[in-house]
Write a structure and sequence with these properties.
- This is MBL fold metallo-hydrolase.
- A seven-stranded mixed β-sheet has the order 6-5-4-3-2-1-14. It has a seven-stranded mixed β-sheet with strand order 7-8-9-10-11-12-13.
- The protein contains seven helices and 14 strands.
- The chain has a single domain (2-253), classed as Ribonuclease Z/Hydroxyacylglutathione hydrolase-like (Metallo-beta-lactamase, Chain A, 4-Layer Sandwich), CATH 3.60.15.10.
- With 254 residues, it is α/β, with parallel strands linked by helices.
- The chain has helices at residues 39-45, 63-66, 69-75, 96-107, 172-178, 202-212, 231-236; strands at residues 2-7, 21-26, 29-33, 55-57, 88-92, 118-122, 129-134, 137-143, 151-157, 160-164, 183-187, 216-220, 242-245, 251-253.
- It starts with a strand and ends with a strand.
- Helix 5 packs across helix 6.
- The chain is 21% helix and 28% strand.
């Protein structure tokens, strides 16, 4: 697997960090985790077209994570769109259908994809769910501690395991979902002493990684105060494995 951080920031505008989004490549398949504002342009910088995405996952429905859903749907109506032989899988928690209906009410047919192009999966947000949407890839989702619809995702393929937390506070469910993963991409929103309810500090992210016994911890979702803090030192007090601070458009191999 290859992981490219399209955006490692939050809803606060930043010249250094775009809104949250992660591109995962496995063989010929491409998975997109969240689409904060500007994601479609960031995809181009990662040499990927929006219509090449095979699976689109939303961790929850806050604007900084779903802002480019409307542009994505609108772009899918482009008359010169290359014909896909397989559908795009759109995966999210409870409320996905309501979100789409509300957007459709606002934008009408302009965001209605060609028939059969999108396949929706609205998953329960209080239990673990298994999916096999793509050949050779196992997807498992589980609840985390943020919004009622919030989900983390575990992707298993070719003997490698990647887990993405989405936004969350400390969560034993996330520890269980991430257990033994090759890489955990985990939010670390604020420095120690500035904790926000529903989010993690570096030490809490490190504690989750240590309890889950993951091999690598990739921290992301940084609010501006993180730029002045020693995130590695704080996290390293809890996690003994490799810690990486996400950088926009950086690529990591599993």
């Amino acid at each position: 697997m290859e992981v490219t951080i399209l955006g490692s920031g939050t809803g606060i505008p930043s010249l250094k960090r775009a809104h949250p989004s992660i591109l995962v490549k496995s063989g010929s398949f491409k998975l997109l985790l969240d689409t904060g504002s500007g994601t479609l342009r960031r995809l181009l910088k990662a040499d990927t077209e929006y219509y090449q995405i095979d699976l689109l996952f939303y961790s929850h429905f806050h604007p900084d994570h779903v802002a480019d859903l409307v542009p994505f749907l609108f772009a899918l109506r482009y008359w010169a769109l290359p014909k896909r032989e397989t559908p795009i899988h759109l995966v999210a928690g409870e409320g996905l259908s309501g979100l789409y209906l509300a957007l459709n009410k606002a934008f009408g047919h302009w965001i209605e994809p060609p028939e059969g192009l999108l396949r929706f999966y609205e998953l329960p947000s209080d239990t673990t769910t298994y999916l096999r949407p793509l050949p050779g890839i196992i997807v498992r989702t589980g609840p985390v501690n943020h919004n009622p619809e919030s989900l983390a995702i575990r992707i298993e393929t070719h003997g490698k395991v990647l887990v993405y937390s989405g936004d969350t506070d400390f969560s034993e469910d996330l520890v269980n979902l991430a257990r033994g993963a090759d890489m955990l991409i985990c939010e670390s929103s604020t420095p120690e002493g500035m904790k926000i309810t529903g989010h993690l500090t570096p030490s809490l992210a490190g504690r989750i990684a240590q309890e889950a016994r993951v091999k690598k911890l990739l921290l992301t979702h940084f609010y501006p105060p993180c730029e002045e803090a020693d995130i590695l030192e704080s996290c390293g007090q809890e996690f003994s494995g490799e810690i990486i601070l996400a950088q926009d458009l950086a690529t990591y191999q599993l």
